[in-house]
Amino acid sequence: MTTTTLRAGSAPARTGTTDRGPAASRARRKRLLHWIAVHSVAVAAALFFVLPFVFVFLTSVMSDDQAMSGELWPHEWNWSNYATVFSTPGFLDWWRNSLMYAGLGTLFTVCSAIPVAYALAKFRFRGRRTAMLLVISTMMLPPQVIVIPMYLVWAQQLHLSGSLWPLIIPMAFGDAYSIFLLRQFLLTIPQEYIESAKVDGCGEARTLLRIIVPMAKPGIAAVALFQFFYCWNDYFGPQIYAAQNPAAWTLSYGLESFKSAHSVNWNLTMAATLLVMAPVIIVFFFAQKAFVEGVTLTGVKG
Amino acid sequence: MSLVESPERPAATAPRPKAPALRRKHLRQRLRTLGFLSPWLVGFSVFFGYPLLATVYFSFMHYNQIEQPSFVGLRNWKYVFTQMPLFGPALWNTLWLVVVMVALRVVFGLGIGLLVTKIKSGVGFFRTAFYLPYLAPPVAATVAFVFLLNPGTGPVNEILEAVGIPAPGWFNDAAWAKPSLVMLSLWGIGDLMVIFMAALLDVPKEQYEAAELDGAGAWARFRYVTWPSITPIVLFAVVTGVVQTMQYYTQALVAGKLASGVTIGPGTVIQPGYPDHSTLTVPQLVYSLGFQNFNTGAACVLSLVLFVIAMAVTTLLMRKRAGLLPAED
Predict the structure, then answer these.
(1) I need a surface site. Which of A64, A176, A194, A262 has the fewest CB within 10 A?
(2) In the 8-state DSSP scheme, what is residue B277?
(3) Could you give the CA distance from residue A173 to residue B44 in angstroms, rounded to a whole number?
């Protein structure tokens, strides 16, 4: 697996550092120039990635008038903009809905993905490859392909449109991406652990719960994080099922209408934008490793 | 639903005294497998198999979601391909985005990946800086970019004008709207960066040393050492990129709506794709047909067009494997 090598951004020390002669000093100058070139490019790139956040933040504390002016630095720091955003009607509901959608969705996904991924990774049965191909195909399919009949079922037969349940309930039945990611992780667990658990008299369920789940914690964490963010960021789903009922909107969906409601107030919109981004970024700082591992696992062969 | 309830060996333990032990064991194993797979089997048939068949069914029906559906044969198909005015632009925009966005994302992602592996000081800072935008919720990122690039009030044009560069209209200019979306997606390159970085660090160091001894320059080392060993990952990035861009929806929709500046009240039907349909993509057209114009038949036809293209790409991926499925069996 590649994740262990990720830390290796620090290159090994150069060999042969005998500081003598013009050749050595030329080599040293070349290294220094190389260092400067690489880091200048890196700083330039970092500006492209970081500046948008900085501008968004600076605008979020400007006064209403200044935010319209295109000026970069706030005359005064209006922290009260954040309070205004929070007291906007509906905003707290959207937080609650986002948390419910993301929380329950993640719980359901993890619980349903574990047994399926385990079977796909460790059982030998006929049709295993086909099953895997089907999982990957569903993962690849645009959600728009199946949304219309699904909407009709939820809205007309089950009368659940106007809520987030049509988005949450299906997650109890296996999400393709999570199954795939977790299966890639489980493949890296040596078969011997399972065999010896069996020798000790563990049934499959006990093996899964007592041996595999504890060993797969990093993989499960990655699945949980990705699913949480998927739900948190989802716009299409809430638009389909919750659009008519603002009380069921999530932050991601509500944010855009927030701009419409405060059509001139870019400062409030930017404050709200940062508030929508904040949980994701805070969680990232606590769980960087699981993230990077998850991305690598789905991208690189396991 | 907790893990403990995950169905394990359901009724399989019923004793079958006459069957040979081996057959009993096989049956039990099969039921065990089915039990573990059952959440997905149910999900796959109910939330994927059924709607897919229903989409095919509705594509031959006239259905406005109020009256009963009635069979119209190929009329929806003919309508979409020959008469629907927005199909052409939507397909063109989607393909444009697929080609340009995927190509630039791969090049840029690889570039950033290479850069990160070359950095000696402050790796942690740079890696985090390059990765964070990927995590920004798409809607939030889009709102932020529409503001940043806003011709009247945005800081970017302010800066461009200050240094004397004529500033474009970005999301408000039909010629610049798609490039603006591409820029937004390049900002969120973090996932590709991580994948490429991992692949680059996996290239055996000895090969570089050997190449250096042979007098290979930087380009030759990239071309003959790095490139061959990362091609599977590049292919993977291209194929998943194509499939993702086929679904491109949220950013295009939100950017168009916000840039157009219309206040969207309940029940307002606005034509997506501002300005001049330049950001209208096929998924947006599916939504607008199915949920705003209630032309279920045509929407389903378009869904199937997406399906066929995505399926073709996925099959290609499977054939090449591209590191998705480890060699096994």
Answers:
(1) A64
(2) T
(3) 8
How far, rounded to the nearest angstrom, does the alpha carbon of residue A216 sit from its chain's CA centroid? 19
**Least confident interval from A14-23, A219-228, A261-270, B213-222:** A14-23
pLDDT in tens, B186-220: 999 998 998 999 899 988 888 888 998 888 888 99
d(CA A251, CA A239): 12
What pLDDT does residue A103 have?
95
Please check whether residue B36 touches A, CB under 8 A.
Answer: yes
Please list the alpha-helical segments (H only) found in A61-127: 64-67, 80-87, 91-122
Which of A5, A115, A148 has the CB atom closest to B58's CB atom?
A: A148
Cross-strand partners of B62: B70
Phi and psi, residue A250, nearest 5°: -100, 170
Q: Do B1 and A172 touch (CB under 8 A)?
A: yes
CA–CA dist B280, B273 (Å, integer): 4
Cα separation, B81 vs B100, whole angstroms: 24
- In percent, the amount of chain A with pLDDT more than 70 equals 90
Angle at A206 between CA A203 and CA A209, to 5 degrees: 150
Of B54, B155, B191, the CB nearest to A72: B155
Q: In this complex, which of B40, B46, B194 lies closest to A295 when CB atoms are compared?
A: B194
Lowest mean pLDDT segment, chosen from A183-187, A288-292, B41-45, B115-119: A288-292
Alpha carbon distance A149, B290 (integer Å): 10
| Pairwise CB contact (< 8 Å): A170 & B47 | yes
Interface touch A56/B121, C-beta < 8 Å: no
**A3-17, B89-103, B118-132, B296-310: the lowest-pLDDT one:** A3-17
Half-sphere exposure (Cβ direction) of A238: Cα atoms closer than 13 Å: 27
Q: Is B114 exposed, middle or buried (0-12, 13-18, 19+ CB in 10 A)?
A: middle
Contact (CB<8Å) A205/B6: yes
Entry pTM: 0.86
Task: Give the count of beta carbons closer than 10 Å to the beta carbon of residue A181.
Answer: 26
What was the pLDDT predicted at A8?
40
**DSSP secondary structure letter of residue B68:** P
- The number of beta carbons lying within 10 Å of the beta carbon of residue A36 is 10
How many interface pairs between A and B have CB atoms less than 8 angstroms apart? Answer: 330
Q: How many helices (H) and strands (E) does chain A have?
A: 16, 0
